[in-house]
Amino acid sequence: MVSAINEFILAKFPGDEVTYFSSDSIEVDPGKEGVVDADYTTEFLNTLKVGNFPDYELKLKVGCPVILMWNMDQTVGLCNGTRMIVKTLGKWFIEVEVLTGTNVGDRVFLPRRQYPIALCFGMTINKSQGQKLDHVGLCLQRQVFSHGQLYVALSRVTTRQGLKILIENDNDEDPNSMLNIVFQEIFDSTYKLQCGLRDQTWD
């Protein structure tokens, strides 16, 4: 869903689009070239979408927001989750301006090998943790699935007026409602630890 939103907005964003491709080969142990080549073809590697690794194809425009996907250099504020805005799209580098953290306003050059960034008009709830935003559009076309996720999403925005929520669900009784997933066991365990009652149980 996040990828679809980002692609939709990028298509409407002004400017020329530049496409970068990731490294699509792997290091091979001597004597195993034939086996590895057969198992990990270029076409297969280009389809992988794994955790905090960038996609095979990265499409950007000058002025669009991006997010850092892993810790590059914590001493200059380049940490996992840092949001930045694209200033220059070169052949062998990308220049960005930092938008969050302790180094807001700094301009940084990302060297070309495999850019650890992703387009970030929209982001997942998990990736939004730690962000403080003036305006948030929350797309809830499906139920959140984990303890505390709804709270995390709603608490990213600094004012109630800056929050917009899109809800689409199959609840006939109240189509404008969304479940707040809470694992009661977490609160029970926390309470027991605080009271020193680990071995006791109650209703």
TrEMBL record:
Source species, domain of life: Eukaryota
One Pfam family named in its UniProt record: Pif1_2B_dom
UniProt-listed InterPro entries: P-loop_NTPase, Pif1-like_2B_dom
SUPFAM superfamilies the UniProt entry points to: P-loop containing nucleoside triphosphate hydrolases
TM segment ranges: none
A single BP term in Gene Ontology: DNA replication
Residue intervals of the DNA helicase Pif1-like 2B domain: 43-89
CC terms in the record's Gene Ontology section: replication fork
Protein name as it appears in the record: DNA helicase Pif1-like 2B domain-containing protein
Organism: Linum tenue
Biological classification of the source: Eukaryota, Viridiplantae, Streptophyta, Embryophyta, Tracheophyta
